[in-house]
Automatic annotation (TrEMBL):
Residues 418-437 have a biased composition (Low complexity). InterPro entries: DUF1214, DUF1214_C_sf, DUF1254, DUF1254_sf. It comes from the Bacteria. It comes from Parafrankia irregularis. Residues 404-454 are annotated as: Disordered. Residues 44-188 form the DUF1254 domain. This is Uncharacterized conserved protein. Residues 339-427, 457-480 form the DUF1214 domain.
């Protein structure tokens, strides 16, 4: 056994611990200096926006085609900043605040406004004072804002990200969303404050295969983990992660070997865990508790509730590392949750070679839901003649008299009689009982009123499928308690041919 094998195991553990922060800070730097996909670089303390909906050629995978994103990389090193959020009554929106360890430490938006009775829920905007760690959290929020708002958010680190999401309803709604994005601003409380510097970055001083470790060492000093994680982080002193100056510029050969080997081991283990999959119900896998790794930082809108906290810190660290694989971050399920499905009732993979039907009982939500089609295994949106990548509760869908929605899932346009075939879908846990179909007023219902009516309904409820393998994602925004308790699950998907 090599004398440094013990350090290999320690390095693998340190990789899993530090991977979320390295990913998060790398993205902060990249977003500020290079931009991300359609979101252009604007530096720090300024919002950049996605102004056009994503399509099949989007640089992002698994994108949501029903929201537009805005991002700001924030540096409070020069001092407090004023965040202005425009009023958006009647429109789902959220601002999620991510610290360098990928913890969501605050939310602003539809859910928080509705439940507190303030802000945009009453048609007003927000003016928020963002205070650096150790700053004066009692600082008068009116100072420099010209507003009576008194919301102050003390950030856990001087550098963090804000990711905003705005729902929209079709191309005709885009100008309204872009107008809201333009009103989303950050400005220094002190107009004479120095320019923000962003995170320190000295990784170019080391060889490429030790870059991760130099970044982790540098950024752990700049952005320490939460105090409850401090003792755990000190375990990595033997790897040089607590040293200053850097031990990686001219490293000890055995230490360098341990770090390189440990990184590969830790990365392979993370891939194994990611590929392990989730538990399923009727083919659907839930993301209900994927974001419950934040055990320490509870700002506005974040529930300090054990029901939304992974009790074991070791498991929470693994969950955080898995979440770091998502480029725009994830949010708690009480803000937005999703269910994924790639198989039919019989357990066979969904494919464009067959036609399917989903008799969807609309999920109970306080905002809206969407059902999106992705190709497999990549996760791109699927090109189709309608330019339709999802259907949602914001659409004019055809409902059954019992309230369920018969969704047609196939690569070719449905035949006029397609919707009337829903009587072949059985009742029970796999789907609501079949019923007669007839077109009526909104929400539209259906009956066997003829091929023309059924054809129109089929087009309205048609979700175009990929030609090859595909999967569906049901997203639920501001989900109701039935969803949050795990009592709601989408029905199974039935193959029709």
């Amino acid at each position: 056994m090599r004398a440094d094998d013990q350090r290999v195991g320690l390095a693998a553990e340190a990789f899993s611990f530090g991977y979320p922060m390295v990913c998060a800070v790398r993205q902060i730097i990249r977003a500020a200096e290079e931009g991300i996909g359609p979101i252009r670089p604007v530096g720090f303390n300024t919002f950049a926006h996605q102004t056009d909906p994503p399509g099949p050629l989007s640089p992002f995978l698994n994108v949501n085609p029903d929201v537009l994103f805005s991002m700001a990389q924030v540096d409070l090193g020069p001092g407090p900043a004023v965040l202005r959020v425009p009023p958006a009554p009647g429109r789902y929106h959220v601002l999620a605040f991510y610290d360098p360890w990928l913890n969501v430490f605050a939310y602003l938006g539809t859910r928080t406004d509705t439940r507190t009775g303030g802000g945009n829920g009453n048609g007003r905007g927000h003016e928020v004072l963002l205070v650096p760690p150790g700053g004066d959290a009692d600082l008068d929020a009116d100072a420099g804002t010209g507003s009576g708002s008194r919301l102050v958010i003390e950030a856990p680190a001087r550098v963090f990200s804000i990711v905003a999401r705005f729902a929209f309803r079709g191309p005709q709604d885009l100008p309204a969303v872009r107008a809201l994005q333009d009103q989303l601003t950050l400005s220094p409380l002190d107009p004479d404050a120095r320019r923000p510097e962003g995170p320190p970055d000295r990784s170019k001083q080391v060889c490429d295969d030790l870059r991760f470790w130099e970044e982790l060492r540098t950024w752990m000093r700049a952005f320490p983990p939460p105090p409850m994680e401090g003792e755990y982080a000190r375990r990595f002193e033997a790897l040089g992660l607590l040293a200053d100056p850097s031990p990686y510029i001219d490293p000890d050969p055995t230490l360098a070997w341990s770090l390189r080997t440990g990184l590969r081991t830790g990365r392979d283990e993370l891939e194994r865990l990611a590929d392990a999959g989730r538990r399923t119900n009727l083919g659907w896998a839930s993301t209900l508790h994927e974001a419950d790794y934040n055990l320490d930082r509870f700002g506005p809108g974040v529930r300090d509730d054990r029901a939304w906290e992974i009790p074991d810190r070791a498991q929470a660290r693994i969950a955080r590392a898995l979440a770091a694989r998502r480029p725009l971050g994830i949010v708690h399920a009480y803000e937005e949750t999703a269910a994924h499905c790639a198989v039919d009732l019989e357990g066979h993979h969904l494919t464009g070679a067959h036609d399917y039907r989903l008799r969807l009982r609309p999920p109970p939500v306080d905002s809206f839901w969407t059902l999106t089609m992705y190709d497999e295994p990549d996760g791109y949106l699927v090109d189709n003649p309608l330019g339709r990548y999802s259907i949602s509760s914001l659409d004019d869908l055809v409902h059954e008299p019992d309230g369920s929605i018969p969704v047609l899932i196939q690569s070719e346009p449905p035949r006029p009689e397609a919707l009337s075939q829903s009587s072949s879908v059985p009742s029970g846990p796999q789907g609501p009982s079949a019923s007669a179909l007839r077109p009526v007023s909104t929400p539209r219902s259906t009956s066997a009123a003829g091929a023309a009516g059924a054809g129109a309904a089929g087009t309205a409820n048609w979700l175009p499928a990929a030609g090859g393998d595909f999967r569906l994602v049901l997203r639920m925004y501001c989900p109701g308690e039935e969803v949050l308790r795990g009592a709601y699950s989408p029905p199974a998907i039935h193959r029709l041919d």
